[in-house]
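Give me structure tokens for this 175-residue protein.
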Amino acid sequence: MVRFSRSNDSVGGSLTEPRRPLNCTTSASAVPTLAMTSNRLLQSPSPGASPTVLVADDNDDTRLMFRTLLGTKGYRVIEAVDGEEAIEITIRENPGLLLLDLGLPRLNGLSVIRRLRDDLKLLDVPVVVITGYDKHFDTAVAAGCDDYLLKPVDFDRLEAILDYYVPTKVKSKTT
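Here you go.
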């Protein structure tokens, strides 16, 4: 089932709420985000192994911030500084999640998504676009991203995305 949310804040939507189909128009007042576009196998933690997150951003400070934050939360963090490297590492490492800046050198983020999804048919790695511009949402969704997070990063929203796609621990079901 396709799920969709249109808000970047905790009040207007979350990853667990039902979402509208992708072909719906979005309000100009809401910053759109997308939770899941298809049923995908999510990387589940195995005993002794940390879920892997690839951070693809050309800004050293941004990569350092994500490396530090995600590392303290128990994630194995790998990094790419441009679009070509992001594709190479994704193919080689098969990360549980790709955090992708749109403004990458050598190959921009939208081209990375299209190449992973269309050319390489790599559909099982969730791609979360991280950008300072909300105007690229529709294009990123059309290219095949799974979620969209605006800079400056809302850390509560990031944590919800991480828990959804690459949880560090298996949540027990209560009946």
